[in-house]
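Tip: read the tokens left to right.
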């Protein structure tokens, strides 16, 4: 059991704590091989390379 709060927390004071709960856009970097936008430290979905090396072989359509 926790102790009871001494005073009531107002709605404005409560909602100030929740003001920083917003989503942020993901950081994107350009792939050095093909130039597509990729999330950092992940394999590129368009060319399959990571750190200038081909990790996943892509089929030519």
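Filled-in amino acids:
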């Amino acid at each position: 059991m926790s102790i009871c709060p001494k005073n009531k927390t107002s709605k404005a004071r409560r909602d100030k704590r929740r003001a920083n709960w917003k989503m942020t856009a993901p950081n994107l970097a350009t792939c050095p091989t093909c130039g597509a936008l990729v999330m950092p430290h992940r394999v590129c979905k368009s060319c399959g390379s990571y750190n200038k090396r081909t990790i996943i072989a892509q089929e030519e359509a």
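The CA atoms of residues 11 and 17 lie 10 Å apart. The beta strands are 29-30, 37-38, 49-50, 53-54.
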